[in-house]
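Lecture 7 notes: from sequence to structure.

We start with a single chain of 420 residues. Read the sequence below before looking at the structure.
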Amino acid sequence: MNGISLLRLATAGSVDDGKSTLVGRLLHDSKSVLADQLSSIERASRSRGKEGLDLALLTDGLRAEREQGITIDVAYRYFATAARRFILADTPGHVQYTRNMVTGASTAELAVILIDARTGVVEQTRRHAAIAGLLRVPHVVLAVNKMDLVAYDEDVFAAVAADFADYAARLGVPAVTAIPVSALHGDNVVEPSARMSWFAGPTVLEHLESVHIDHDPRPRVARFPVQYVIRPQTAEHPDYRGYAGKIASGLFHVGQQVTVLPSGRTTTIAAIDVLGEAAETAWAPQSITMRLADDLDVSRGDVIAPSDRPPTLTDEITATVCHLADTPLTAGDRVLLRHGTRTVTAKVKAIGSRLTLADLSQQPDPGRLVVNDIGAVVLRTAEPVPVDDYAASRRTGSFILIDPADGATLTAGMAAHTLG
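Now the structure, written as tokens:
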């Protein structure tokens, strides 16, 4: 649990807010771009008639993205400084790609939301803020970009930051760190801006390096979804039975009393193997093989949890969801619900409300949710599912709904969570 820390972050912003340029500037000025990458970007910039480097090309890697000048897919970038390692998900800004932002932010510990200083908070900004709140991203940075186009005016920055902070507070988003930047010229991205001496806060990189991220698994509920049952049945290991997977949250130790769900059978942990070596303890997100003291019927999709803190076993799930598919989600629809490593059939019992982004009001009984809608639903599952409140565990409190006809992802859901 020691060593240089890792921060997972996601970026979001409306089209033309300069998000890809910000990410490119962050990578370039932090010396995280290889020489051959830089040469390739220089050639591509010249071919597009640019006098200098088009830093957006560092993240917009798809041909269609470069031709249209917009981000379409989630681009993951890995970089490091002396202070911290980073996994960055650069997500699309266009409304039709909002589903990609959900994907990129689902595992993020920090979200950077860009706003064009000239236009301020717009509908897509509200949608990105709502998704950050929905996914309970612990930290939010508001990057007020293109300050060079408003003469680096402190009052403009203050007004935009106050408008966003008010909206975010109504969503229940944690404290927002607002930073005025010019991604094009590098102001307050990696280096402090001499043109905004009125700003005493950190640069974007300084904040990313110093923000506190709690990776201590001990206070969190321990959850282990079984992915694979190992039974070699060889002469050397005739009775070996191990349960392999990735710990979703918390910490387990040998001798701990655990319950297997949904069966409800109780036993103790006899052994834990990490990378083929015996270990006394293991914690999220390690991949392990767990062996139990008793010969129980455990299969893929089961969840092993401490007997004194088990998840709720239920066949009716109330959740807040973000609908991702072009096909609407309608009350009465039959779907597949994938929760961790378990997939069960389910029915949309009711769609209780739909969130109106402009004023955060709830439209009751909308009947259906269309693409990018955020709403409250009730699901009835064919068999009980061990599910946590999303506020207690992002991993075991989340699920996706799948179209049983073609396997397409329909909806991302957060159990027992309300928004707005």
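Confidence is low (pLDDT under 50) at residues 62-72. Keep this in mind for problem set 3.
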